[in-house]
Amino acid sequence: MTTHYTTRLYRDETDYEQMRNLLRDTYPLTTPPLNCMLGDLDWWRAITNDPQVLGKVQLWFDPLGMLVAFTWPGTNQIDVMVRPNHRIVEHEILRQAEIEYQQALVPDATNRTFRYWSYEVDTVRNTLLTEHGYTRTADFLTFYTFPLNHLPDRFVLPTGYTIRHVAGEADLEARVAVHRAAFHPSRMTVEKHRNVMASPTYRPELDLVVVAPDGSFAAYTIVWLDAVNRMGLFEPVGCHPDYQRRGLASAVMREGMDRLHALGARVAHVLSWRDDSAGARLYPAIGFEVTGKIYAWEKNL
Q1: What is the CATH number of domain 150-265?
Q2: pLDDT at 110 over 90
Q3: pTM beyond 0.90
Q4: According to CATH, where is 3.40.630.30 located in the chain?
Q5: Alpha carbon distances (Å) from 23 to 12, 147, 211
Q6: Beta-ladder partners of 289
């Protein structure tokens, strides 16, 4: 069925640029976007706990040598990025991913569940998963969109609070501290945020923080700009628990929208976990609209 495709493991930064190009090329082709954003990929790479993760990325090429798909591996799942006109390759991707997962399992493993993600409206992938014995779970990510041609009113910060972007190495420990507090328990480290700052899509002026009156960081976000598609992604967004319910996360996102607009972006995106997370309450409240829901499908291997 897919014998005209070839596959191999990731080799070097040239491959990474091809992966980025695939994401950039495919973003405007479907609504909601079939694949993740440039910022997602850079974020995943920077904060991974597996130093060998890139060596496990599988690349798929057409007969002319064009990258048509790649997988990003997880502990018990993969994320699949594919060009819309090459969806047929997903049959082989899924088959290979299952084999590799089964081979990695220890004989007495109690958890043998494998996950694959698909939009609620993606009939192609949903059909594939159903045919292969997967069941859709109740877990999902919500994908939101905000057109930047009509920005909301600015959010007024409480007295003594300010917003600015990070000042590089000088702010690194404080920047990591607010992330760890917002997502406690968190495995974020100074070295991981250094990796974030070295990412090709990262811009220091879009790594934003709310500074409290005592000089500590109270809330933050990173905005990732895809200049070609004139699109921005908020990932992550967080607020220190000691400073919640003051509108700080809304304010820092509003600042990010302004900066995106000034850089020529036309639209912003953000994702939240299910309907019971802080993001699921925050993003619609400031005007983001649901574009799609990405469900986890599972199979016991």
Answers
A1: 3.40.630.30
A2: no
A3: yes
A4: 6-139+296-300, 150-265
A5: 17, 20, 34
A6: 145
